[in-house]
């Protein structure tokens, strides 16, 4: 093969693929309020009651698949922190502060 391709950057991968790739299984999480996932989803600048909402904070309980959303007017960390406090501090909301919160860097 090296005779055919030489020292080219496009030499084929001659290694075997890995036999086992470890993956996380969220179906095995059975205790509610233990693991949550969150993400910020951008909107097309929705207007409601005189405010322009630019994003939504989505929170998902991995065990029960319960979802909660909070509209945001900006992506600032102070506003996201207030949204978390508002959602988790609400007594009528079935979610409580999690042991593990997974989110991306966005």
Number of domains: 1
CATH topology term: Nucleotidyltransferase, domain 5
CATH class: Alpha Beta
Shape descriptor reads flat
Describe the biggest sheet? 4 strands, mixed
* Euclidean distance between termini CA atoms: 44 Å
Strand content: 25-35%
Query: How large, in whole angstroms, is the Cα Rg?
Result: 22 Å
How would you state the average pLDDT, rounded?
Answer: 81
Kindly report the spatial arrangement of strands forming the biggest sheet: 3-2-1-4
Structural class: alpha+beta
Helix percentage range: 10-25%
| Topology as a string of helices (H) and strands (E) | HEEEHE
**CATH level-four homologous superfamily name:** Ribonuclease H-like superfamily/Ribonuclease H
How many β strands by DSSP?
A: 4
Uncertain stretches:
none
Give a brief rundown of this model:
By secondary structure, this protein is an alpha+beta fold. 16% of the residues lie in helices and 33% in strands. It has one domain: Ribonuclease H-like superfamily/Ribonuclease H (Nucleotidyltransferase, domain 5, 2-Layer Sandwich).
């Amino acid at each position: 093969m090296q005779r055919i391709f030489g020292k080219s950057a496009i030499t084929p991968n001659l290694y075997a693929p890995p036999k086992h790739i470890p993956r996380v299984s969220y179906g095995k999480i059975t205790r509610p309020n233990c693991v949550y996932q969150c993400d910020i989803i951008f909107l097309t600048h929705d207007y409601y009651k005189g405010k322009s909402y630019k994003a939504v904070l989505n929170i998902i309980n991995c065990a029960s698949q319960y979802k909660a959303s909070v509209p945001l007017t900006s992506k600032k960390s102070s506003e996201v922190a207030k949204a978390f406090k508002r959602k988790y501090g609400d007594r009528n909301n079935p979610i409580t502060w999690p042991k593990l919160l997974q989110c991306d860097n966005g």
